[in-house]
Amino acid sequence: YFIQSNLRVTMEKLDFPSLSAKSLKRINRARYKAREELKNQTVDWFKNSYYESADTLLPPVIDTVPRVDSRTLSPEAFRSKYELPRIPIVLTHAMDEWPAMRKWTLKKFTKKYKNQAFKVGEDNRGNSVKLKMKYFKEYVACNKDDSPLYIFDENYGEHRKKKQLLGDYTVSPYFDEDLFHYVGERRRPPYRWVVFGPKRSGTSVHIDPLGTHAWNALVSGYKRWILFPTNTPRWLLKQNLPDSEAITWFKYVHPQTNDINWPSEFKPIECLQGPGEMIFVPGGWWHAVLNVSDSIAVTQNYVSSANFPSSWHKTVRGRPKLSKKWLAELRIHRPDLAKIADEVDVSQPLAEQSDSSSNGSTSSSSSSSSCSSCSGNHHGDVAVLPYME
Questions:
Q1: For strand 151-153 and strand 192-197, is the pairing parallel, antiparallel, or unpaired?
Q2: CA distances from 69 to 72, 74, 94, 273 (A)
Q3: Cβ neighbours of residue 80 closer than 8 Å, sequence gap 6 or more
Q4: How far apart are CA 204 and CA 288, in angstroms?
Q5: Torsion of CA 91, 93, 94, 97, to 10 degrees
Q6: 128-132 and 151-153: which strand pairing?
Q7: Is there a contact between 145 and 27 (Cβ–Cβ < 8 Å)?
Q8: What is the C-alpha separation between 314 and 316, in angstroms, rounded?
Q9: Which of 1, 5, 138, 264 has a CA that sits 20 to 30 A from residue 67's CA?
Q10: 389 near 372, Cβ under 8 Å?
Q11: Which residues are 142's β-sheet partners?
């Protein structure tokens, strides 16, 4: 009753469209669990009025991430020009033939998966907070939250009905070497997510876990990306802010990157990712993402031969049980990589920075992508990785 009453007050105060009592209850239950740290659930979700100011909060994006036409880029050229030297790029025309490009709309999703629950956050105990798609659609239509709930669902591939989504896209040949698959689906860390990001949601600055590369394919909407070199010190980016939400980081830290006093060697690159574009984020690069419109995407993290040494180093130090299983399988299937693993000196730190000491937020829309799994946030030997983009 308390949760439902609070949300009804909130909806009426902001003149939101009327929702049924059932919808109000389900939506606010998810909001409450995902952001338990908010002291006043009735007003704290929208206390900064970003709903009104988000469009003018930041200067226009100056695109400095290279765009490459996938129709003229071979997998071999991608590996030598971008993956091995770890250069972020935006790939165009890599999704032209995907069924997802015509099938993945909120309306069609709701029609097909309306009674399926998708993950929109985690509570303070690390338990998943879920919301049925039919309620999420209503929430997207009427929310005025500063940092809205954000579908970031990693289990769709194992779900009886939601696994049909796997047939709507194909992994690009650039990213088809997936070395963690040798340990099996049950044991490997979570690695793929279907993403519904309402405007103003996003992920605060972080490094993806275990040295993995990542690709993010945007089906609809626009995402603002900022990326920092691998040697950027953590203290420069992880500042003491009012909260750990992406929009808060962009409001307070992003302007500093344009200041004359910002170290030139840690200057970021930025881009505005549009529909049909796929961004490649090399392992070790700090990055933050803000949805500047409602967006739908799919993203995966992976390890290839190119980033195996650093990924192996981080896995041994952060996930020793997983590393033993991985090495045993590599000795059978990839002895060439097992030999490299034997030669990596894991007693010495990597030159690149690590995000392993950061604490993930419980918000579905925030910097819970801060890779707390790298510091042992897992159950048994199956990692529970927070959100990431």
A1: antiparallel
A2: 6, 10, 8, 14
A3: none
A4: 5
A5: 170
A6: unpaired
A7: no
A8: 6
A9: 264
A10: no
A11: none
Residue 39 CA from chain centroid, whole number: 26
| 112-to-89, 104, 165, 281, 286 alpha-carbon distances in Å | 34, 10, 11, 31, 36
| DSSP per position, 205-272 | EE--GGG-EEEEEEEES-EEEEEE-TT--HHHHS---S--BHHHHHHHTGGGGGSTTS-GGG--EEEE
Length of the chain measured in residues:
389
* Residues pairing with 118 in the sheet: 131
Which two tokens mark 118?
A: 């998708």
Quickly tell me which residue has 């997998």 as its tokens. 75
How far is it, in rounded angstroms, from Cα 337 to Cα 278? 28
Rounded Cα distance, 376 and 371, in Å: 10
